[in-house]
Task: inverse folding
């Protein structure tokens, strides 16, 4: 997992130097979608007004349709995306984000965005069932792998990563 300061630095880095990947990074970190789910997302699935992402393509044996809430700050970051039509990201965006991030000096373990989202979300809201629903996991998986990795304050900090540029 990564911490909220690293996540914020990544968001700022990609917003300024690689804006074509900002949508994918925002959805990865603030919504915890799986790599394949992010690559399948279109802007039609993102409601900035109602503040959710509709996931319709999911990993086998997981909930295929679910709504994942967008925090106020996730909406702010997504508003910085210049083109909000069609696919939310270029092909293989998560792989490119990790490659670019590593070159820029960030330590980005595999699945760090999904794991960080789930860990911080559980800490933030203390509701394993709700997080399991948002993440498309079972509560048992959340209990086994993601509980008590961060404090409530650290969980809140993750979802309070705001953009420094207003629209």
Result:
């Amino acid at each position: 997992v990564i911490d909220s300061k690293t996540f914020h630095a990544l968001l700022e880095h990609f917003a300024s130097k690689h804006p074509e990947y900002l949508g994918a990074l925002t959805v990865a970190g603030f919504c915890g979608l799986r790599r394949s789910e992010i690559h399948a997302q279109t802007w039609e699935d993102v409601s900035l007004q109602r503040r959710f992402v509709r996931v319709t393509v999911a990993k086998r044996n997981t909930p295929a349709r679910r709504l994942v809430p967008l925090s106020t700050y996730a909406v702010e970051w997504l508003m910085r995306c210049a083109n909000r039509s069609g696919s939310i990201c270029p092909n293989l965006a998560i792989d490119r984000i990790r490659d670019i991030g590593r070159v820029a000096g960030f330590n980005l373990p595999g699945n760090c965005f999904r794991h960080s989202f789930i860990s911080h979300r559980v800490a933030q809201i203390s509701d394993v069932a709700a997080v399991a629903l948002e993440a498309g996991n079972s509560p048992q998986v959340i209990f086994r792998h993601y509980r008590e990795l961060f404090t409530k304050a650290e969980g809140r900090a993750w979802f309070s990563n705001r953009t420094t540029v207003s629209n």
The chain has a mean pLDDT of 92. The CA atoms of residues 48 and 75 lie 6 Å apart. The radius of gyration is 15 Å.
